[in-house]
Design a protein that fits this description.
Elements (H helix, E strand, L loop, with lengths): L1 H16 L5 H16 L5 H8 L3 H4 L1 H13 L3 H8 L1 H20 L4 H15 L2 H11 L6 H12 L2 H15 L4 H4 L1 H15 L16 H20 L9 H23 L13 H30 L5 H6 L2 H17 L5 H19 L8 H26 L8 H39 L7 H14 L5 H38 L1 H4 L5 H5 L1
Helix pairs in contact: 2-9, 2-10, 2-11, 2-13, 5-8, 5-14, 6-7, 6-21, 7-8, 7-13, 9-21, 10-18, 10-20, 14-15, 16-20, 16-21, 16-23, 18-20, 19-20, 19-23, 21-23, 22-23
Length: 521
């Protein structure tokens, strides 16, 4: 017993001596996980070709990764009690790294999906545990600087993911987007063993009961929800019977899971943290921001490739100004976190996101690179200024003992928010293009002078190679092609403006948060 007490004291003292050392393994592990959420997106066509499957089938490679990690994320508190948080963190790194290597050598779609599920299981615990460890190791007044450093990972990694994935795929081959995780995982493993120490409440506990019903309901809820969100738009949503069935099952399972967690004393997750106003409001704001972030990351490269003619690498590279803006904002947050009210930083950040989104909503098909770069840079500044302080504010009134559980729940809801964002924006684009096409098509009539003149001008271009009748039809086709371009452009514009409105609407909620300095006084 005497030895045990001495060991605990040593861990606590070492943790207090240099908490920045804990940043190293948490940042490396979180970077590895967050990067993998977006790095594979641009390589999907290459994977589909390697496995001889359609692009639609290859999407399961992304879907099951998100499902597996989503199930694990809210369970990090329970796993930390059963295994000890440090042991769980190390095990997660090992599973993720091994699974990454297996993904790189997968020979068919079935094995690839299986390995991605394993990778998601390993990666699900990395981000919430990293966030909890980082917040615990610093005093409340120092958390702003720590989270600013951590923000380099959670904001910049998903932005550089498509760029890095595109470059690796074009210059090497797609398996290397998974192989690069192996050295990163080994480094994270050694750093975690050396610098992470468990406080008493984060160590392995005896007699922890398994909430089997909660786990089953959670798995069914997230499995069906993710499939509906990923495939709903392609299946025309509730016009498809199987989408209706899965939506009903998801709703029932989700409600049953919440009820079971409220009534069960030995629940899988502790929902009592939602009684904390800062945590609840801060989490909601982060969910909206995550939806806007991932939705914008999904559609901007799509706009550049489908309407502007960019290739995958160039469209990914166009997102780099967003990363540079976020990087600059991190330094601002680190220097201003103790001087300026964090709520003010969040509101300025949301304003910058709204401004950048609205500027992207003013695009046309004759834009220059600067018209993409500056709004992205402003968007990145907003992300950096808003994301890090809101995480700090949302956790300001959470006790250290609840930090792991709260971080897991928060990251689960952010994942769901991101899934909703990408799903909603996909629907906005497809339905919006149809709406604008319907509105514009009435102008494609021979009774409209401008249309007739344009068709005649196009037809005259083809007169030297085809007969007049064929040239007229080719002129009509060119006019219709331009109409479709404008309809799609208008749908993209609508989506970007919705991002701006969503960012503005949540600004008043920031005023309801308690400031960290108020808590200290």
């Amino acid at each position: 017993m005497r030895v045990k007490i001495s060991f605990m004291t040593k861990n606590t003292e070492e943790q207090k001596i240099n908490p920045w050392l804990a940043c190293l393994p948490t940042m490396v592990a979180a970077f590895m996980f967050v990067l993998d959420e977006t790095i594979a997106n641009v390589a999907l066509p290459h994977m589909a070709g390697s496995f001889s499957v359609s692009r639609e089938e290859s999407m399961w490679i992304l879907t099951f990764y998100l499902i597996a990690s989503g199930i694990v994320i809210p369970m990090v508190g329970w796993f930390s009690k059963v295994l000890g948080r440090k042991n769980f963190f190390i095990l997660s790194i090992i599973i993720f790294t091994v699974a990454s290597g297996l993904c790189g050598i997968a020979k068919n779609l079935e094995s690839m999906v299986l390995y991605r599920i394993l990778q998601g299981i390993g990666g699900g615990g990395l981000l919430p545990v990293s966030q909890a460890i980082l917040l615990e190791n610093f005093k409340p007044q120092e958390r702003g600087k720590a989270m600013a450093v951590f923000g380099l990972v959670i904001v910049i990694a998903p932005i550089i993911g498509p760029v890095l994935g595109g470059w690796i795929t074009e210059n090497w081959s797609w398996p290397f987007i998974y192989f690069i995780n192996i050295p990163i995982g080994i480094i994270a493993l050694f750093l975690a063993r050396a610098f992470i120490y468990d406080p008493p409440y984060a160590r392995k506990q005896q007699g922890v009961k398994t909430d089997g019903l909660g786990f089953f309901l959670l798995s069914i809820w997230l499995l069906t929800l993710q499939i509906v969100l990923d495939k709903g738009n392609n299946a025309d949503w509730f016009n498809a019977a199987w989408i209706c069935w899965l939506s009903g099952i998801s709703a029932v399972a989700g409600i049953a899971f919440l009820i079971s967690q409220i009534k069960n004393k030995e629940s899988l997750v502790d929902l009592s943290v939602f009684k904390d106003k800062n945590f609840t409001i801060g989490t909601f704001v982060q969910v909206v921001m995550q939806a806007v972030l991932l939705a914008s990351l999904a559609i901007l490269p799509q706009f550049l490739q489908s309407l502007m003619g960019y290739d995958a690498y160039k469209s990914g590279l166009s997102m780099m100004p967003r990363g540079l803006g976020a990087l600059m904002a991190m330094f601002l947050c680190a220097s201003l976190s103790n001087l300026v009210d964090n709520r003010l930083l969040v509101m300025i950040g949301l304003g910058c996101i709204a401004g950048g989104s609205w500027m992207l909503g003013e695009l046309n098909l004759q834009i220059s690179t600067m018209n993409i770069g500056f709004p992205n840079f402003l968007f990145g500044i907003g992300l950096g200024l808003a994301m890090i302080p809101i995480i700090t504010l949302s956790m300001a009134t959470i006790s250290n003992a609840q930090m792991t559980n709260a971080s897991g729940l928060q990251n689960l809801l952010k994942n769901i928010g991101g899934a909703f964002g990408t799903s909603i924006v996909a629907t906005l684009l497809s339905r919006g293009a149809q709406k604008h096409q319907f509105m514009l098509i009435e102008h494609l009539s021979d009774t409209v002078q401008t249309y007739s003149e344009r068709v005649q001008a196009y037809a005259s271009m083809f007169m030297s190679t085809v007969d007049p009748h064929t040239a007229h039809y080719m002129g009509q086709y060119n006019a219709y092609r331009l109409l479709m371009q404008q309809a799609n452009l208008s749908a993209f514009i609508d989506a970007f403006r919705i991002f701006a409105i969503a960012s503005i609407v949540i600004i008043p909620l920031i005023l309801l948060l308690k400031n960290l300095k108020e808590e200290e006084t």
